From TrEMBL:
It comes from the Bacteria. Residues 5-201 form the Ketoreductase domain. This is Short-chain dehydrogenase/reductase SDR. It comes from Verminephrobacter eiseniae (strain EF01-2). Belongs to the short-chain dehydrogenases/reductases (SDR) family. Gene3D superfamilies: NAD(P)-binding Rossmann-like Domain (3.40.50.720).
């Protein structure tokens, strides 16, 4: 479905990114496998993981090159796109998958823990997309797939940095879809449920946490890859600005914020009137303080 396309997959040295890179190559794409080879918290550098995935792809008869530039830096992200141009002569799609975790309850979160996660996830998605956008505009085509998360779309404990970045990515994707529609460029999001090194870092101190992690452990990264391949293919030409989740064999279309209920007062509102009339009328539609696991409460098969 993606025969001959040149695709950048960031964070592709393992987990979901590796599965997507392998699937892209299997379906005919030429792949830039980007990964700096860092630990889950972003520490360290190792060219090995990216090259190992490239070796896997080549062993199967596919075309791939390794890249170890850092998505969190604008100049470095530009080099990632340059790698595709130098290696394959074009760039057709980017999959913004690179990410790190530095989980901490909000009142304990440091500035560095906030900054580092925002820079890799949100800035990284921006930098790589922005570098590719110039070429997409010139050629009149292109596709972007960004990884969001229900931690941001719904909520979760101890992940203010990650959740803010992931919800920001959903808004970034929608803005790209709107701004670049006239250039035939599409932008969509996937909220993946799959076992990865990042998921593996979730604490399992309580029985509830252990049960949750055990369920996710059963969802393999390979389940995410088919949707990513589809979204960059020409078959998805009418799919733009959407958010999907994948849980094992289940694909969901995720809602986007819209007005739920309104109340009008012709003479305007005072704080007292809001307390006495507006809030009681709206309260029935309030959202509970749900977490992702509360909303996705059933086991996918």
């Amino acid at each position: 479905m993606v025969e001959g396309k040149a695709v950048v997959v960031t964070g592709a040295g393992g987990g979901i990114g590796r599965a997507i890179a392998l699937a892209m190559a299997q379906h005919g794409a030429r792949v830039v496998v980007n990964d700096i080879g860092a630990a889950v918290d972003g520490a360290g550098r190792d060219a090995g993981p990216a090259q190992q995935v490239v070796d896997e792809i080549r062993a199967l008869g596919g075309h791939a090159v390794a890249n170890t530039d850092n998505v969190a830096d604008a100049a470095s992200a530009t080099r990632i796109i340059g790698c595709a141009l130098d290696s394959f002569g074009r760039i057709d799609a980017v999959v913004n998958n690179a990410g790190i975790l530095r989980d901490r309850f909000f009142h304990k979160m440091s500035v560095d823990e906030w900054d580092s996660v925002i820079k890799v996830h949100l800035y990284g998605s921006y930098h790589v997309s922005r570098a590719a956008a110039v070429f997409f505009k010139e050629q009149g085509s292109g596709a972007m797939v960004h990884m969001t998360s229900t931690s941001g779309l719904i909520g979760n404990f101890g992940q203010a940095n990650y959740a803010a970045a992931k919800l920001g990515i959903a808004a970034l994707s929608k803005s790209i879809a709107l701004d670049m529609l006239k250039f035939n460029v599409r932008s969509n999001c996937i909220a993946p449920f799959a076992w990865s090194r990042m998921i593996g870092s979730i604490p399992t101190d309580t029985e509830e946490q252990r049960v949750r992690v055990d369920k996710i452990r059963q969802m393999t990264p390979a389940k995410i890859a088919p949707l990513a391949v589809y979204l960059i293919s020409d078959a998805a030409r009418e799919v733009n600005g959407q958010i999907f989740s994948v849980r094992n064999n289940e694909i969901s279309l995720i809602s986007q914020p819209r007005p739920l209920r309104s109340i009008h007062r012709s003479e305007g509102w005072t704080p007292q009137a809001i307390a006495e009339h507006a809030m009681p009328a709206l309260r029935a539609s309030f959202f509970a303080l749900d977490r992702s696991a509360d909303v996705f409460s059933w086991d996918p098969v």
